[in-house]
Specification:
binds adenosine-5'-diphosphate; four-stranded antiparallel beta sheet; binds magnesium ion; alpha/beta
């Protein structure tokens, strides 16, 4: 995927983008994220303390951690919705919050669909805001509707959809923003187990077809381990990264076989032990 990023005076993107400058090299799958020494305080409350985290270009890093440890805060900072109290955030190059905004698509924890728009028009909001004509924006959203099992619900208002369907429309809207960096905050949290497993396989397929650099926050250890190249486990607030687990072969086409393998089971045990406050 070709990166369309940033202000004209910015340096070229890091490592993988540099590689794509080589004649004949494949295009970079998006910029790398590099977070160093990041701290965030809300007044007196220390939300995040000393976060160092790198997401190589085109990879998925999962983040799991207890409620209130600062996961949403971290995504909002990377997205450029907040400026951190300390530390640096690079998306390709170090950027202040306003310069991070155009690089990232954030799927917030609450779906924030516009209640007066149809599901199709909600999904097609990003190209519309970018100036696309309504029919063109709808044409782009329509095939993805079918892939997400939403066909037939194009003209439904969000209030007429189930929670799971709303989340899928919200995910589509995030994807349709066409940004190289996806920041997903518990994207499948309110889905039932079967639909969630289907959505995970679907997302694995989407990322295989069209690589993005992804930060995936989830409270579901299995989801994180299935979808991510590595998983960062956070401590309770103020959030730090207790350990990062490497996942050997993420996003396997046969999800059921992958998540029941002994190696996956070992990783799950390590993650759960870390979450419970133990060593890895
Ligand atoms: P998580 O997503 O891991 O549940 P959050 O990032 O939402 O955690 O919150 C981390 C901590 O910061 C919590 O204690 C929460 O109450 C606090 N917090 C979050 N947003 C704000 C805000 N806008 N103002 C003040 N405190 C906040
Ligand atoms: Mg949260």
């Amino acid at each position: 995927m070709v990166t369309k990023l940033g202000a004209p005076n910015q340096e070229p993107l890091t490592s993988s983008a540099a590689a794509s400058d080589t004649p004949g090299a494949p295009p970079a799958p998006g910029p790398a994220i590099d977070i160093r020494g990041l701290e965030h305080r809300y007044g007196e409350l220390a939300a995040l303390a000393g976060i160092d985290l790198a997401v190589p270009a085109g990879e998925v890093v999962g983040i799991v951690g207890p409620s209130g440890c600062g996961k949403s805060t971290l995504l909002e900072i990377v997205a450029g919705l907040r400026e951190q109290s300390e530390g640096t955030v690079a998306i390709g190059v170090p950027r202040t919050a306003p310069d991070r905004l155009p690089a990232c698509a954030l799927m917030p924890q609450r779906d924030l669909l516009l209640p007066w728009l149809s599901a199709l028009d909600n999904a097609a909001l990003a190209p519309r805001i970018a100036g696309a004509r309504r029919d063109r924006a709808r044409e782009r959203a329509q095939p993805l509707f079918e892939r997400l099992g939403l066909a037939g619900f194009e003209s439904a208002r969000p209030g007429e959809l189930s929670g799971g369907m709303r989340q899928r429309v919200a995910f589509l809207r995030t994807l349709m923003a066409g940004k190289p960096v996806l920041l997903l905050d518990e994207p499948f949290a309110s889905l039932d187990a079967i639909t969630r497993a289907q959505m995970q396989s679907w997302l694995a397929g989407v990322l295989a077809d069209d690589a993005h650099t992804v930060l995936l926050v989830t409270h579901d250890v299995e989801e994180a381990l299935y979808l991510s190249d590595r998983v960062a486990v956070m401590t309770p607030r103020p959030g730090r990264i207790a350990a990062t687990l490497e996942v050997p072969s993420p996003r396997a086409p046969d999800r059921a076989a992958a998540v029941t393998s002994p190696r996956f089971g070992d990783l799950r045990q390590r993650a759960l032990k870390l979450l419970a406050g133990g060593a890895s």
